[in-house]
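Researcher: I'd like a candidate sequence for this fold, 44 residues long. If you have to choose between options at a position, lean toward the conservative one.
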């Protein structure tokens, strides 16, 4: 069963930044759908 769960997450499509379309690393904290670069620009 654990193996199936891992497979499930591996098959999920990668999140993409809504600003530049770059793939985003999975993060525990969800600020939105932007990559670190774009989030940095918006935070300034
Ligand atoms: Zn971006």
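Model: Candidate sequence:
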């Amino acid at each position: 069963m654990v193996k199936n769960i891992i497979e499930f997450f591996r098959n999920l499509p990668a999140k993409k930044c809504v600003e530049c379309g770059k793939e985003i690393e999975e993060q525990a904290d969800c600020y939105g759908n932007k990559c670190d670069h774009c989030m940095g620009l918006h935070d300034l």
